[in-house]
Structures are given as C-alpha cells and as structure tokens.
Design brief:
The chain is an alpha/beta fold and 489 residues long. Helix content is 42%, strand content 12%.
Length: 489
C-alpha cells in the first residue's frame, strides 16, 4: 500500500511527472511512425477497454501501455509534420510548460480576488499581443476596452453578439428582438450561425451574403449596403456585422475599412474574426490585412492555431468592456467582495459564458517570453514560405489547378478531370482526398467553393519542413496518376 498513488504528494508527482514527460517526448520523437489520420473504425475502443472502472488501482505503467496500444491508434496526430488538414493547432515546448504549470497551480480565476495574478497577467499579456498586432489603443486595458482569453473563436463571437444584442435592445426596446439582423459573408465560420441560435436571433435574420471568385470570396461592401437598405425598408434593425480575415475555406480577407464604415453609419457592432490569419499579422508585411481594424468594436485571433500556444487560447479584444459586462454579468451574494464592489478590478467572469476559468494566460506569457517576437515572426514566415513552395509545385503540374490566390499558408487546389464535367471533377477530387488520407502518410481536408470540390493544404504544424511538403506532394501526384488512369480505362 505504500506505493499507492496519493491524491497529491510532491515526490510522487516528481516521479510520475518525469515518466509522463519522457512518454510525451518519445511520442514527439516517433510521431512520424503513426498514420496521421487515425485509421480505426467507429466503436473500436469499446472492444478494447473494460465495461466498468477498476475497483483497485492499476499501475501507472499499465496505463501508459494502454495509451500506447489502445489510445494512440485512435488519435489523429495534429502535431505530425505531415498534418495539413483544416487549420493548425499548435503545440510548443513553451506552451506545454505553461499548460503544465497551469494544471499544477490549478486555480479557478473567475474574479480578481480568486487569484489576482491570473486576472492581471491576462490583461498584461493581451496588451502585449495587442501591441504586437498594432491594434488601436482603444483595445488596450488602460482605456475603456481590453482583452480576454476565451476558449475558442466560437465563444468569442457569441459573447460579442450577446453584448451587441443587449446594447441595441436597450436603445430600441426588448420587443424588437425578432427584428434584429446579423450580416456576414457565406464564407464566415458556422460558429456565427450557432451564436445566432443561442442568442435568439431568428436564423432567417442571419444574412450570409454570397461571396464568389470575383472578390476572391471576400464580402462585397456594395452587396452589404444594398442588403442593409432592403432590410431597413421593411422595418428590420441591422445590428451586427462579422468580417473575417482568413476565412476557413480559402483564407479570404474581407475589406475591413469599407465594411467598418458601413457598420458605423448604421450603428452596428462590427466584429472581426481573424482566428487563423491574425497570427500572421504580427509580421509587418502581413499587418495590412487587418487595416481597418480601427473601425471594429471587437477583434479575435486564436493563439492556439498558429502561434505556438497549446489549445485552448482564443484572444478577444473589445473597445467597450462595459457592453460585455452588462450582457454577461451576474452578482450573487456569495461572490461579492470589496475589490469588485468598489470597481477597482476586472472580473473576467463577466466577459464570458461560464463562471469558472483556467489560468490560460500562463502559457501565452511563456510563449511570448521564451520565443520572443522575432522568433514567432520567423516561425510564421517559414510556414508561408513552405506553402508558397507547395503552390509552385501544384502550378508546375498541368493536371492540377490552384483555385484561389494563396495569401497565407493555405493552398486551395484541385485535380482537373480528363473531361470538362464539374460533377466528374468533384467526384475525382473526393476520391483523391480519400486515397491520399487512407495512406496514413499525410492528412489534408477539403471545402466547396462555388459548387466546386476543392482540396485544402494548410501548412502550420511546428515540425513541418520542406521534405514533408515534398513527400505530401509525391503522394498526391502518385494517387492522381492512379485515379486518372482508372478514369481513362
């Protein structure tokens, strides 16, 4: 019984912690040995694990053995250098160490008093990041606004939508809820629609305006103005506009300045979702993609996507923190305290949906300190350079086509069918995606643009090098050759 695992013991933590760090380090060392996309069938784990928890404790080694033999085969390896699907979700040594420390301290920092350092460090690191992005002073904590770490961009858009909803209803009356209208392009992340559902905005009042290749899938200011005019004419109330810098499908960039002016003239809340591409804007040569952010009421980027900060860490800035607080604040007796009652502090519970919150700022602070701005810029630039290299490879093969201009580190491309038939082309590219992913050597994902099935190649994993991009292209070429041969047979 002496060796049983205690709830907390410093020496046991040291012993088991070393073993776990060794296990994780070995995982990274051998990560390329795993199929990138898990090849298991649905329900596979049910047959491998007992149907109830043990009465007596298992050994730590037995648990590690089960992770190796039963859990890892069912993992899709997002940190693999051969992972090119969706958008990246970065891990780093600094991010991991910050997570470890956060788990070790394990505070629940819903208000300043519950851990002053958690609140104040979050304010400071988000001011640091705001300066790196050259965001307007209005977004800094010294004024009426400030930053907060949400779990995801989905939470970020929800809380600002709620703030915008309540702000407009205070002006026009609560009975006007059914008249409120939200605007975005049809390339906007589906999180906006979910936010509308939660906020009680009728889905028929969520205007997802069609974007096409003529604007490289960016939202047209002219179309927006026209639609707003039509809605005003029938007595509806435009109140929220969401623009995107780096859309999920193709990294389209909405024209922030023009859209922001339209929002301002119609007294609408203007939110900018830069979940993926915001990271690139710490590089001076890419900062212009968020020109016009000065018109925005809120701005969001995911440090956990492409900024070496382990999931979850979604940075949201607002110009008017009181709008968030009025929409989301509760003040029960059991949470009252001197600092909060005197309005001397920020209580982040009033800036988010849940009450409890993790000490997320630790990992972002460690990333910024242990890497520094110059290394983070180099990291971003390297991935963009690798994506350009892949784009060049695609352009050199006449069987393929680059579908939209590459802006950051995503390449949208497709295999051209042997005959000019869109249905056949879509089927061919779907088959190519399945053939490539089933090898386990590489993982890519897809989208549909203007009815066309498109393959997406997103560079962004921390371990990816040029040799991995070349190897992925070789797999794509080989599978394409086989498929085109079959279609001609």
């Amino acid at each position: 019984m002496e060796n049983r695992l205690k709830p907390m013991d410093a020496e046991q933590l040291r012993e088991y912690g070393h073993k776990m760090v060794d296990f994780i380090a070995d995982y990274y060392k051998t990560i390329e040995n795993f199929p990138v996309l898990s090849q298991v069938e649905p329900g596979y784990l049910l047959n491998l694990l007992p149907d109830s928890a043990p009465n007596q404790p298992d050994s730590f080694q037995d648990v590690l053995d089960d992770i190796q033999s039963k859990i890892l085969p069912g993992v899709t390896h997002w940190q693999s250098p051969n992972y090119f699907a969706y958008y990246p979700s970065n891990s780093s040594i600094a991010g991991f160490l910050g997570e470890m420390l956060s788990a070790g301290i394990n505070i629940v920092g819903f208000s300043w008093i519950t851990s002053p350092a958690a609140t104040e460090l979050e304010m400071i690191v988000l001011d640091w990041l705001a300066k790196m992005l050259k965001l307007p002073q209005d977004f800094h904590s010294a004024g009426q606004g400030g930053g907060v770490i949400q779990g995801t961009a989905s939470e970020a858009v929800l809380v600002v939508l709620l703030a915008a909803r309540d702000k407009v209803l205070r002006r026009v009356g609560k009975g006007a809820l059914e008249k409120l209208v939200v605007y975005a392009s049809d390339q906007t992340h589906s999180a906006l629609q979910k936010a509308c559902q939660i906020a009680g905005i009728h889905l028929e009042n969520c205007r997802l305006l069609k974007a096409n290749s003529s604007t490289n899938y960016a939202l047209s200011p002219e179309l927006l103005s026209e639609t707003i005019s039509q809605d005003l004419a029938i007595g509806l109330i435009p109140f929220f506009l969401c623009a995107t810098v780096g859309t999920t499908s193709s990294t389209a960039v909405d024209p922030l300045l023009a859209l922001g002016k339209i929002a301002k003239s119609n007294e609408m809340w203007f939110h900018v979702d830069a979940a993926y591409a915001g990271s690139a804007c710490v590089c001076p040569e890419f900062r212009h993609y968020i020109d016009g952010v000065e018109e925005a009421d809120s701005f969001n980027m995911n440090a956990h996507k492409w900024f070496l900060t382990n999931f979850d860490c979604s940075a949201l800035w607002v110009k008017d923190r009181s709008a968030l607080v009025q929409a989301l604040s509760t003040n029960p007796e059991f949470l009252k305290n001197k600092a909060s009652q005197a309005n001397l502090v920020v209580d982040y519970k009033d800036w988010q949906i849940p009450l409890g919150r993790r000490f997320r700022s630790l990992k972002l602070w460690m990333v910024l300190r242990l890497y520094g701005l110059e290394n983070l810029q180099s990291y971003i630039r390297n991935h963009i350079k690798l994506a350009k290299h892949f784009e060049d490879l695609v352009a050199q093969d006449p069987r393929f086509e680059v579908v939209t201009p590459r802006i950051f580190s995503l390449v949208c491309f497709c295999l051209l069918p042997s005959r000019n038939d869109e249905h056949h082309g879509n089927k061919l590219n779907h088959e190519l995606l399945d053939a490539v992913n089933s090898t386990g050597n590489v993982f890519i994902s897809h989208t549909v643009l203007s009815g066309k099935y498109i393959l997406r190649f997103a560079v962004g994993a921390p371990l990816t090098e040029e040799k991995h991009v070349n190897a992925a292209w070789k797999v794509l070429q080989d599978k394409a050759t086989a498929l085109l041969g079959e279609s001609l047979a």
